[in-house]
């Protein structure tokens, strides 16, 4: 059983900055400051430099959307990966894992085109299976993949949604609408729940995703 305290500030081994909507919110700025390493997708570099003057450990991508002047100005190394079978987010996560950086936070993975957002979200289970403890952040909440039993320490009133990536049994306790060994056959069916206890216990036979909102509902 794994316990995740969502009330404590998370310090990732690596922060991956993707080319979606990169917000100037307090949590994004904190992660940029405290992450041990930073990997930036090439298309996100310009926006990243608007938020921080910290030099990334690596800028990575296929090179079609990076400004060489930006790379030269900050002295950041650049890795060009031309293969098109994976997107730049996956290239960045793969790079981080190859360095042994397994505790990974991702920002900028949502927003803009919906197909990019959905694709990035449902890549999280693949990263989990590759050995990453990965968290996706936005100003609206945090999303993580999990399997087996996980206990979330969080604040009551937060919204919680579950997404069954595979049609396998799941359970949830400490929420407004608890369930036991339920098989959900559509992605929306376990969404829009609410945390009612400070410790929420989730279980899934297969890899699933949970989302916990930043805001609380009275």
From TrEMBL:
Residues 30-134 form the Thiamin pyrophosphokinase catalytic domain. One of its GO terms (biological process) is thiamine diphosphate biosynthetic process. It holds the Pfam family TPK_catalytic. Residues 141-211 form the Thiamin pyrophosphokinase-like substrate-binding domain. GO terms for molecular function: ATP binding; kinase activity; thiamine diphosphokinase activity. It comes from Porphyromonas levii. NCBIfam families: thi_PPkinase. Its EC number is 2.7.6.2. Keywords: Kinase, Transferase. This is Thiamine diphosphokinase.
